[in-house]
Amino acid sequence: METIGFIGAGNLGTPIVTNLLQAGYKVKIYNRTREKAQPLEALGAELVSSPAAAAVPGGIVMSLVADDKAVESVAGDELMQALGHGGIHVSMSTISPDTSRILAAHHQKMGVTYVAAPVFARPEAAAAKIGNAVISGPADAKERIKPLLQAGFAKNIFDLGEDVGSANVLKLMGNFMIAGAIEMMAEAFALAEKNGVDSKVAYEMLTTTLFAAPIFRGYGAMVVDRKYVGNPAFSAALGLKDMNLVLQTATRSHTPMPLAQLVQSRLMTVVARDVKEADWTALAMGALEDAGLKG
Amino acid sequence: METIGFIGAGNLGTPIVTNLLQAGYKVKIYNRTREKAQPLEALGAELVSSPAAAAVPGGIVMSLVADDKAVESVAGDELMQALGHGGIHVSMSTISPDTSRILAAHHQKMGVTYVAAPVFARPEAAAAKIGNAVISGPADAKERIKPLLQAGFAKNIFDLGEDVGSANVLKLMGNFMIAGAIEMMAEAFALAEKNGVDSKVAYEMLTTTLFAAPIFRGYGAMVVDRKYVGNPAFSAALGLKDMNLVLQTATRSHTPMPLAQLVQSRLMTVVARDVKEADWTALAMGALEDAGLKG
């Protein structure tokens, strides 16, 4: 079976590579901090010492790293040369649509196809292959990578067309809406608590009827129970990075987004106060503490 | 079968009374504008000419009117005397929790029990009896009215305890969260449109996965298609009234709610600009027009 290069053995990369190995793919894994990839080596992945060493000529390399700079640093000329003509770079990180477009143009010059395929999944959802993929880029490359996304983490794949930036925009929209939902619940539950309403009943009502969606169910429980510190599935720092990308994209396209500014401020406060082990749900502390409640 | 008094033949009162009649209840209906209740007379309701005339001694009167003032004006001493000892007033309007508490105390003095039972349902959901009821007040009165709520509109009933204000607070939380969801989608879809993303695909992705809840599905389509003007199911003016109640309750309880302030401003603008036949979803025009898009 095909050998796949994978760059990034983080919270999401690890379950995805594990799934790819279980599906029978050979995986060459690169991670900047080598030790983090060693558990995957134990599962059968080949640990390599540079991004380019993960590539097979004409093959597929998937990258899932922290931010724009990290993608730019791994997707350099060496990786392009190693992938060569017919090669595909599947860029799964949450990055700016502009970065995707600039990288895609550079890839094309080097004969490599760039596909944007950001991941909608918490680590446990990726592990269970019930995540969602959104993809954009050239049609034939998208067809070629779909089985990999399905084997790795995705229950559903949504195709956003040829402009590579589109999938990145949708990923930012989704993360903005999650952050907005957390703010919304923080304010609503603050109102409940300040007015003697049983938060658990209110949570049960709202998240089994009008707001019966995984986002409200999951994050709502974390807000009501103040369970957003310790072992973060998605850290406040990463949430802040994403809201910065939302505002950057909004600013460049002249799109005023006051709610995005609010949640970005909330996350900035969590990071500024150096709340240890904070999941991004900790942005709820803002509305709760502003109301004099325990954050 | 029992005779029920019903006050208010509006968008929601009409389908609820229709359901009660179909379930075999006898209904005495009062509406300030008599003509609006005539279709219900045709279905078998008895049209009466004052709120008190809707009451049977020791019986149940349900009210579903526009705002706090309207509830205060119908639930006066005449209605109390007509209901008398053992009577129950089921107050279904979206009003301030404080108004509920004040009314409940006055009812009690007159021997009548006040139950708060605001309605979570658009008219078509009420008609289909798939709405949600939230109730608060004395336990025995709540037990007695449950079959009526089920016959009238409710698939689920959530009990918020003895403090009558609690159900009103939860109703306000829910409406605030719907308004917040509309703002969130307006900002997100503005970002999509300004960045060349296909809104329909983005809508499909977001509302079938992370945000697969009726609120996002229904209101999201209205935002994407700009279908919030003409034949409003819930008008911008009523939405503004509710957000005013949210902020009033927030202010009295010292609960800063910046997102609630934002959506209240958005609705105020829709009303200030006198947008004809505007559903409250028209608050989305704010974010869209701020981005230079068609509102």
Automatic annotation (TrEMBL), chains A, B:
Domain 3-hydroxyisobutyrate dehydrogenase-like NAD-binding: 165-283
InterPro entries (UniProt xref): 6-PGluconate_DH-like_C_sf (IPR008927), 6PGD_dom2 (IPR013328), 6PGDH_NADP-bd (IPR006115), HIBADH-like_NADP-bd (IPR029154), HIBADH-related (IPR015815), HIBADH-related_NP60_sf (IPR051265), NAD(P)-bd_dom_sf (IPR036291)
Protein name: NAD(P)-dependent oxidoreductase
Active site, UniProt feature: 171
Transmembrane segments: none
Gene Ontology MF term list: NAD binding; NADP binding; oxidoreductase activity
Keywords: NAD, Oxidoreductase
Family matches, as Pfam families: NAD_binding_11 (PF14833), NAD_binding_2 (PF03446)
Location of the 6-phosphogluconate dehydrogenase NADP-binding domain: 3-158
Organism encoding this protein: Chitinophaga oryzae
Keyword Lipid metabolism applies: no
Iron in keyword set: no
